[in-house]
Automatic annotation (TrEMBL):
Name of this chain's protein: SMI1/KNR4 family protein
SUPFAM superfamilies assigned: SMI1/KNR4-like
Ranges of residues in domain Knr4/Smi1-like: 38-201
Length: 211
C-alpha cells in the first residue's frame, strides 16, 4: 500500500470506535473516533488557492480520501473548514498556524530553541519586564512560519506539518511551552517522520492497545 492510498483507514477507525467504548486510547474521549467528511477536489483547490500553497502530498491525499479532520494522534486532527469566507484549521492551538505566511519557507532542518540566548534576569528592573521580554522572543510568530499545526497533546504541546521549506512534508513538534523549542520528529529507524507514517504509526498503536 502506498503512502497515498488511505482506503483502509475509515474501516479501521470504525473498528476502533466499536472496540474502544471506554475511550482508553489517549485523546479518544475528545475525538470520539469520528472522522469528518473529506474535502471535495473543488474545496481543496479553493483552499490551496486562497492559502497560496499546495499542501504536501501525503496530507493532501488524506483530506481528499479520509477526512478533513477528526480521529487521529493525540486529541485528533484539527479539521480544515471554511469559516467566515476563509479556509482555516479549527481547534485548540490551530490558531498558531499563520495563514498569511503558510506559503513562506520554514527554514529549519534541525531542532532549535528560541529560548536559547534570551536576556538574563539581571538586565531587567522587574520579573514582569523580564518575562515579557523573554516571551516576546520565544513566542515570536516568525518561528512557525511555514508550519501547519495539526493536533495538540495537552499542556500546550503541539505537533505540526512543514508546508514549505527544506523540511516540507515532515512532522515537527512544538515543545515551546516546556522551554524545549521545536524539533523534527523521527520514525523508529531515525528517518524523518512524514504525515502518513505519523498517522499510521498512531493507528497501529491504537489497534495494538484495544483490538
Amino acid at each position: 500500500m502506498t503512502t497515498l492510498d488511505w482506503s483502509d483507514v475509515r474501516e479501521r477507525i470504525e473498528h476502533l470506535r466499536r472496540a474502544d467504548r471506554r475511550r482508553v486510547v489517549f485523546g479518544a474521549d475528545e475525538h470520539t473516533w469520528q472522522l469528518e467528511p473529506p474535502l471535495g477536489p473543488d474545496e481543496l483547490a479553493d483552499a490551496e488557492t486562497q492559502l497560496g500553497v499546495e499542501l504536501p502530498a501525503e496530507y493532501r491525499s488524506f483530506v481528499l480520501q479520509v477526512g478533513r479532520g477528526g480521529a487521529g494522534p493525540a486529541y485528533g486532527l484539527f479539521p480544515v473548514r471554511r469559516l467566515a469566507g476563509r479556509w482555516q484549521w479549527d481547534g485548540d492551538g490551530a490558531e498558531l498556524t499563520d495563514l498569511d505566511t503558510l506559503d513562506q519557507p520554514f527554514p529549519h532542518v534541525q531542532a532549535f530553541n528560541p529560548a536559547d540566548g534570551t536576556p538574563a534576569r539581571e538586565d531587567f528592573e522587574s520579573d514582569d519586564a523580564w518575562v515579557e521580554a523573554v516571551d516576546a522572543i520565544v513566542y515570536d510568530p516568525k518561528h512557525s512560519i511555514g508550519l501547519l499545526y495539526l493536533c495538540h497533546l495537552g499542556c500546550a504541546l503541539r505537533e505540526c506539518l512543514v508546508i514549505t521549506g527544506p523540511a516540507r512534508g515532515q512532522m515537527w513538534a512544538d515543545d515551546t511551552t516546556e522551554d524545549k523549542g521545536f524539533r523534527p520528529m523521527y520514525d523508529e529507524d531515525r528517518t524523518p517522520l512524514g504525515f502518513a507514517r505519523w498517522y499510521r504509526r498512531w493507528l497501529d498503536a491504537a489497534e495494538r492497545q484495544v483490538l
